[in-house]
Design brief:
Strand content: 25-35%
Shape: elongated
Distance between the termini: 63 Å
Number of helices: 7
Helix content: 25-40%
Number of strands: 15
Strand order of the largest sheet: 2-1-3-4-5
Order of helices and strands: EHEHEHEEHHEEEEEHEEEEEH
Largest sheet: 5 strands, parallel
Radius of gyration: 21 Å
Length: 253
């Protein structure tokens, strides 16, 4: 097999990266770099433009799904790997061509790379094959991953900011922004995904916004049953009638 593929290894365990590198070298695949976490992976992707990401899922703060969601065009092909065969996967929402369970065997890795080679960077789509999708759909769902920080875009790169510093997330023209006292940042999440990650700390006053309840300074009722919230930066946020009761209950609690 000729070295016709450039792969970036992403795993928070050094031993796992070393094992994968040995197998990739045996398969004559060029390893362009190794990343020990998701944020580092995004930096190296921009630097090396690999053909394929061999991407661990369970990593601190910025996991494999976060990385896949944050990829910009032209996107590398993604092969997920995980130590958990019952890991909660919604991989059909992410771009991937295969899903490997650790410990990854040489034969299984070669099959995944062959699939990547066949698909190629110029392929029109990167949806999961039926075989992979069926395997993923058999896995169990678990609760949302809770992280203290959120991955955002900043100046053409990525950074992590604390959820505590976010006043609100809001959707505008199909893109969700995070607003802090220092400015606003683009995210690669939907409001629903952020709502699942943040739990009761963030609530939806309306369809287009998700507010940090710790930054609410006051609430005023309107005559039609709706309400208006004032945030710590004096922003006024509209609360629909349907959501007003839950917001008031949270503030009283």
């Amino acid at each position: 097999m000729a070295a016709d593929m450039r792969v970036l290894l992403v795993d928070d365990e050094q031993a796992a990266r070393r094992r994968l590198r040995i197998m990739l070298e045996e398969l004559d695949v060029e390893v362009v770099g190794e990343a020990q976490n998701g944020l580092h992976a995004l930096e190296l992707i921009g630097e090396h433009r690999p053909d394929v990401l061999l991407l661990d899922i369970a990593m601190p703060e910025v996991d494999g799904f976060d990385v896949a969601r944050a990829l910009s065009d032209p996107k590398p092909l993604v092969i997920f790997q995980t130590a958990y065969d019952d890991y909660a996967l919604q991989a059909f929402e992410h771009e991937a061509i295969d899903y490997l369970v650790k410990p990854v065997t040489l034969e299984r890795l070669e099959r995944a790379l062959d699939r990547a080679r066949e698909r190629g960077r110029a392929a029109s789509g990167t949806d999961l094959t039926d075989e992979v999708l069926l395997r993923l759909q058999r896995t169990l769902r678990s609760g949302p991953v809770q992280h203290p920080r959120v991955l955002v875009r900043h100046g053409g790169a990525h950074k992590l900011i604390s959820y505590d510093d976010v006043l609100l997330f809001y959707a505008q023209n199909g893109i969700v922004h995070a607003r802090t006292a220092k400015g606003r940042f683009l995210t690669d999440y939907t409001l629903t995904e952020l709502e699942e990650r943040t739990g009761a700390v963030f609530l939806r006053p309306n369809r287009a916004e998700l507010i940090n309840m710790n930054h609410v300074t006051s609430i005023a009722s309107n005559g039609d049953g709706s309400a208006a919230l004032t945030l710590s930066d004096h922003t006024i946020v509209r609360v629909t009638r349907r959501r007003a009761s839950a917001i008031r209950a949270q503030l009283k609690g």
